[in-house]
Amino acid sequence: MAETFIGLAGNPNCGKTTLFNELTGSNGYVGNWPGVTVEKKQAPWRVDKSVTFVDLPGIYSLSPYTPEEVVSRDYVVNERPDAIINLVDVTNLERNLYLTTQILEAGRPVVVGLNMCDLLKERGDVVDTAALSSRLGVPVVEVSALKNDNLDELVRKALSAGAKGVPVAGTKCFSPEVENALARIAAVISGTCDASLERWYSVKVFERDTEAIRPLHLTKDQTAAIEPVIKSVEKKRGDDAESLITSDRYDWIAETMEACVKKAPKRLSVSE
Ligand code: GDP
Ligand code: K
Ligand code: MG
């Protein structure tokens, strides 16, 4: 039977290593600070050795600026795992979703694991998982890695997404004028990369990330066709392309939080 690789990606301290240890029987270091895992680690699933889980370094973005981001970005974009479990600390959902928006662009099947749901229950906050799933365009599974809660379901969804091999449809998280520019860029770069990576590279081209788009080997004509598309959006929005991508992500995340999370009423912190 063919081997299946499933990458575990997420922010520092979202519980990836706890999940990895639970799934593989490893005893990798679990610690409450960032930067512990700089190398990716891999081990077979306890239940079926043909499935390999890959614990990626914790990151806030796939930019990549830090060594952790380089390792995780290379794995996701170049090594192409069969599926990605994007583990999210549900108690820091807003911050964690920034990376999620980028992972959704990488053209792999993705399942989001909402981790630390045990803590959410204590707080009384409610996440509308179905609404979040439809907004992200991928399955969302509530889990607790620490309590070994619902992990089978998470793996089952990831394996099924990987077996189907259908990448994320491409959640449109940018403003209409940026989405329009991305579509025009995609038409120009079509054929220079794997079709599943077109959205990923369109965003990189829009950001003028020369390092990231080197593998495309764009011709002078292609670059000349694209530049006015970017410039016209920058002029309209009064900001540079890279900042627009970031701020549109934040706007989309804010809307997502508004639509999918109900915070518990704040309790007064007076002693009784
Ligand atoms: P990583 O940096 O993503 O690898 O995160 P770790 O696995 O090292 O976990 C960071 C901290 O979160 C550790 O103290 C874990 O025990 C804790 N943790 C992980 N998963 C859960 C969970 O589901 N619930 C709770 N309450 N704590 C968790
Ligand atoms: K950690
Ligand atoms: Mg870790």
UniProtKB/TrEMBL annotation:
One of its GO terms (cellular component) is plasma membrane. GO terms for molecular function: ferrous iron transmembrane transporter activity; GTP binding. Residues 3-164 form the FeoB-type G domain. It is found in: Cell inner membrane. Keywords: Cell inner membrane, Cell membrane, GTP-binding, Ion transport, Iron, Iron transport, Membrane, Nucleotide-binding, Transmembrane, Transmembrane helix, Transport. This is Fe(2+) transporter FeoB. It comes from Thermophilibacter immobilis. The lineage of its organism: Bacteria, Bacillati, Actinomycetota, Coriobacteriia, Coriobacteriales.
